[in-house]
């Protein structure tokens, strides 16, 4: 029997707003009462995608019906393409045709794509309506559903249009991971390792010891893994909701990873979590070359990813060009007069923000990294 972890965490923001995160196995079946606690028996509007509609929607709908909460459902096409102006417009138009009011709650049932689009729509519909996150991928459960960043992509890049809009609650059912494709499960694991590497050395060791439980999707292991990972994210978000300072730590591995993702043009060769795995290894290797952290730590990170069959060498993905990768890094979120800000580790569980990394130094590092077979 897995112990239900009701309200496993509570996220309290600097201004006092707060919301619960529920984590348990089979929680979708009892999500109706949790939603009724938030808003009584008002009508809600579920937004999901076609894959999730087949797998997770019936349990949510049954629970809402049982709790006597009326609902409508909008179903998007799966995939990153739905985080677009066109789909946002279509979604808002459909929402308006349902005559919502300022209290109408949206429910995002799906991965990060559904969560980001729904959250953004909720933040601008009638100047803001409440929403609940029910994340169904491991990546969205440990990362995107918590923290309040919402948004869409444009031709200029990913997530450049969006808002901060915190959910009223996050409901995480580990059972929904049963149908998740293995590649997506591994991608979520990369973000978990990233979180441990940022702030919790004990959790990193726990991950090394509990890989089998993860790979066989033991509910108790999944619940503990998600809870510990989210605690790290929530602790940081609670201190810095809008990324004025330490929230940037959550970008460990992301500036390297985004460069690789951009070079692959989001064509499916490298999904985000895989890019984060490579990026985290590269951040540790780069820190080791600067003498900031020990090469042994970089090896531990690499081994953990190898054990779950995440990519650990850039050459597994494509033949990359160092100069182009550096260009992408310069265009990553926060350009700073040619210098690049990186999150670099001192050790596993301790990272810091380095705002003045030169493009030249990175160019040399990539050239070595891309040609050294042993390391990459
Ligand atoms: N807002 C944030 O803070 C934040 C943080 C990290 C990532 N993101 C965003 O999240 C997005 C990626 O999210 P993702 O990795 O969850 O991808 P996703 O939402 O595209 O889901 C991946 C695939 O899994 C399918 N799927 C979802 N749940 C399933 C289930 N239970 N069973 C079977 N299939 C299922 C989806 O239909 C999709 O095909 C990106 O757009 C990224 O920018 C946002
Ligand atoms: Zn990420």
Task: Provide the descriptors you would attach to this structure in a database record.
7-stranded mixed sheet, disordered N terminus, 19% strand, 376 residues, binds zinc ion, two-stranded antiparallel sheet, binds nicotinamide-adenine-dinucleotide
Describe the structure.
The chain has 376 residues and is an alpha/beta fold. The chain is 47% helix and 19% strand. It is built from 15 helices and 11 strands. The strands form 3 sheets. The chain has a 7-stranded mixed beta sheet, sandwiched between helices. A two-stranded antiparallel ribbon has the order 7-8. Strands 10-11 form a two-stranded antiparallel sheet. The longest helix has 21 residues, at 219-239. It is globular. The model is unreliable at 1-5 (pLDDT under 50). It binds nicotinamide-adenine-dinucleotide and zinc ion. Zinc ion binds next to helix 12.
């Amino acid at each position: 029997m897995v112990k239900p972890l009701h309200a496993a965490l509570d996220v309290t923001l600097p201004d006092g707003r707060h919301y619960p995160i529920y984590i348990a196995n089979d929680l979708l079946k009892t999500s109706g009462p949790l939603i009724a606690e938030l808003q009584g028996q008002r009508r809600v509007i579920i937004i999901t995608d076609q894959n999730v509609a087949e797998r997770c929607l019936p349990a949510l709908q049954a629970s809402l019906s049982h709790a006597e909460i009326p609902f409508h459902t909008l179903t998007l096409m799966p995939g990153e393409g739905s985080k677009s102006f066109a789909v946002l417009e279509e979604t808002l138009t459909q929402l308006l045709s349902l005559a919502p009011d300022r209290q109408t709650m949206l429910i995002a049932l799906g991965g990060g794509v559904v969560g980001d689009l729904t959250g953004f729509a909720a933040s601008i519909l009638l100047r803001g309506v409440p929403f609940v996150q029910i994340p169904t991928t491991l990546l969205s459960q440990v990362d995107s559903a918590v923290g309040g960043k919402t948004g869409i992509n444009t031709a200029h890049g990913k997530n450049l249009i969006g808002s901060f809009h915190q959910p009223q609650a996050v409901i995480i059912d580990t059972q929904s991971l049963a149908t998740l494709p293995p590649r997506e499960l591994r991608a979520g694991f990369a973000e978990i390792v990233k979180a441990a590497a940022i702030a919790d050395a004990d959790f990193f060791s726990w991950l090394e010891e509990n890989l089998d439980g993860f790979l066989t999707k033991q509910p108790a292991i999944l619940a503990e893994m998600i809870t510990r990972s989210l605690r790290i994210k929530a602790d940081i978000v609670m201190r810095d909701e809008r990324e004025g300072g330490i929230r940037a730590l959550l970008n460990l591995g992301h500036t390297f990873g985004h460069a690789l993702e951009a070079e692959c043009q989001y064509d499916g060769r490298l999904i985000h979590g895989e890019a984060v795995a490579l990026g985290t290894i590269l951040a540790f290797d780069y820190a080791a070359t600067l003498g900031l952290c020990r090469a042994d730590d970089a090896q531990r990170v690499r081994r953990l990813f190898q054990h779950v069959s995440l990519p650990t060498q850039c050459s597994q993905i494509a033949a990359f060009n160092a100069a182009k990768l550096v260009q992408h890094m310069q265009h990553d979120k926060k350009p700073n007069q040619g210098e690049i800000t990186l999150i670099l580790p001192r050790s596993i569980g301790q990272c810091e923000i380095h705002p003045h990394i030169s493009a030249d130094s990175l160019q040399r590092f990539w050239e070595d990294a891309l040609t050294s077979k042993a390391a990459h």
